[in-house]
Amino acid sequence: xxxxxxxxxxxxxxxxxxxxxxxxxxxxxxxxxxxxxxxxxxxxxxxxxxxxxxxxxxxxxxxxxxxxxxxxxxxxxxxxxxxxxxxxxxxxxxxxxxxxxxxxxxxxxxxxxxxxxxxxxxxxxxxxxxxxxxxxxxxxxxxxxxxxxxxxxxxxxxxxxxxxxxxxxxxxxxxxxxxxxxxxxxxxxxxxxxxxxxxxxxxxxxxxxxxxxxxxxxxxxxxxxxxxxxxxxxxxxxxxxxxxxxxxxxxxxxxxx
Length: 257
Known about the structure:
The protein is built from one helix and 18 strands. The chain is mainly beta. The protein has one domain (9-255).
């Protein structure tokens, strides 16, 4: 970890591989500063890792990076112990939070952190970039909450990219809050809601039998992607109802297996 007038720089690295005994080993589990990592009890062959926030942030000027790779045959589940809160800092300027996930053929990675909350006065740019090989499995959930209770949000820009063998089949960006393009809170985008989330599920069997597009309630939809995956996008008035919607969507997809 490094710090100074330009903000804190911190990186967490996770590498998973089969342990030869039917489970998953973690030869790399390194985190510093605000990105502490803890291995917790998993189920079956899965290795489970929790991001444990050791400091506030990200604050203005900070740059956090999480890198995780699942080798062939590994099963890795990554969560977080609490919500991440983007806050204004003494250093003016944008904070960054970059997530880089790599999933090999025959591996599975589940990225299921708690919500990201954009507090008033903050300015955060989040990127999530996933590289998959054929036969990889992915469950990825992202949830953004615009403002804490009874406050206006900060500026939040979120970009999500998923690639299969180097070719993108999902690339989307959403910018909300002060300074965002006009209409972000209008009926064509968030429609006044303060919680927005997406769930990406990639499975090899979806290449031949993808779920059909459909609405999942009034403010959620399932969309097949141009690859072996689906995207669920949801809006809600608060984080609790957003989580319920995305959890129900994942259960529906799991029932197909």
